[in-house]
Amino acid sequence: MPKRILHVVTNVAQYDDPAHPTGLWLSELTHAWQVFADQGYQQVLVSPAGGAVPLEPRSLKFPYYDKTAKAWHDDPAMMALLENTAAPAELDPTDFDAIYFTGGHAVMYDFLDDADLQQLTRGIWENGGVVSSVCHGYCGLLNTTLSDGSYLIAGREMTGFSWLEEKLAGVARLVPYNAEQLATERGAHYGKGLLPFVSHTVVDGRLVTGQNPGSAKATARKVAAALDGAAR
Asked: Where does the DJ-1/PfpI domain start and stop, copy by copy (predicted)?
């Protein structure tokens, strides 16, 4: 049976200030989707509310609007997948081998405290699956607890979009919290690359995380490697 991957995407289209649009960072989905497609994996999209997924406008500009992102954006069938995503309560964690949280600042609003997403993540992890995120996607892991009440990320090496990158991106005053700080408060061993916006990934067993948009492809490849190792 082919491995099954669950991609988590956002339903949020703006910051608290509606003058600032946001949404899914498209290449963080398309890069991983291509890696997993090349492996022959089955892939499913889920969002906290189900249904339509907005796109982050900045992800549709150079240099992030690359070949894979443009191909997805230009394909009505692929865009239709983002109009009809599943809701978490409709899914069974035992049906999936890995969960992959995509980013974009929007996820800071609807990933952090979604109990149904947390239940899916906990189920996949406790069934021996791989839990992964890229960029702001790790916001979906910050409050996820295991059956014993401990945080999933406690005591584990991980990464995600850094506070320095928030400052350099000019949005530190717009975001609702400091995700890097929260990860540390939850007991994670947060680490980041020497240079901002450069690909950086961290693997701690079945937890695979990438720091920023440029890390999506490498993160997906390491998810595939982790799944391959789990199958042996």
From this structure: 27-224
